[in-house]
Amino acid sequence: xxxxxxxxxxxANEALGKAKQGLGDVTGNDKMKAEGAAQELKGKAQGTxxxxxGAVKSATDKL
Length: 63
Description:
The chain is mostly helical. Helix content is 92%, strand content 0%.
C-alpha cells in the first residue's frame, strides 16, 4: 500500500473506532467500547505506517 492509502485507511479506522466507542458509551455496551478503542488504535498505527512510508520515499527521492 502507498503512504496515502495507509493514511486514509488509518483516518477511517480512527473515526469508526471513535464512533463505536461513543455508541458503546450511549448503549452501555462495554464490548463495543473495547472494539472501538482497538479499531482507533489500529487506525493510529496505520497512520504512523503511512507517515513512515512517506518519509522513506521522500528520503530516497532526494538521493
